[in-house]
Amino acid sequence: FCDFLTHDSITPDCFAAKEASEISKNTTAYCPLCTVLEHRWAGLSRNVAEELSPPPSSQYSVPLWGCQVAHGGALLGDASEAPKLRAIWNALSANAQVNRQAIPAMGRICCNTTDATTAACEILPVCAVVGGMLVQDVLKVLAARDSPIVNFFVFNGSTGGGTVCRMDIPQLFI
């Protein structure tokens, strides 16, 4: 994840006369990652949750990061660590006000012994997939030509699937 906070780009001025090719500065303000992770999912219904795979609040990598922080930077590599991984996911779910009826089995799915055993192998493939998807957007940012994306992408390395959630972020134009 990359915290842009604010990003300046240039865009063609659609209100300028046709013969004048004016450009205008566009400033987009983004919320920081910590704000995104603190989003509340209290209104998530069962129908909406079934359409999102993986569910947004599970944030598959976030419990892994939590365990990594708790272990002084070391990633998990032992099946006996699964209860710690599950406890972190439960704490994140409770904090995000996830409706347990909407996603009843998510804690068992994302925090099993396989996840605890393969956690050390999980981060790099996720980074590769996300990096590959974002390279075009990074080029747009560096060129200051267009605004960066405003989506939050969650990738589940165990299934090879992911979810893109459009974040409702107000844009400021200067």
TrEMBL record:
Gene3D superfamilies: NAD(P)-binding Rossmann-like Domain (3.40.50.720)
GO MF annotation, one: ubiquitin-like modifier activating enzyme activity
Xref: SUPFAM superfamilies: Activating enzymes of the ubiquitin-like proteins (SSF69572)
Name listed for the protein in its UniProt record: Uncharacterized protein
Native source species: Obba rivulosa
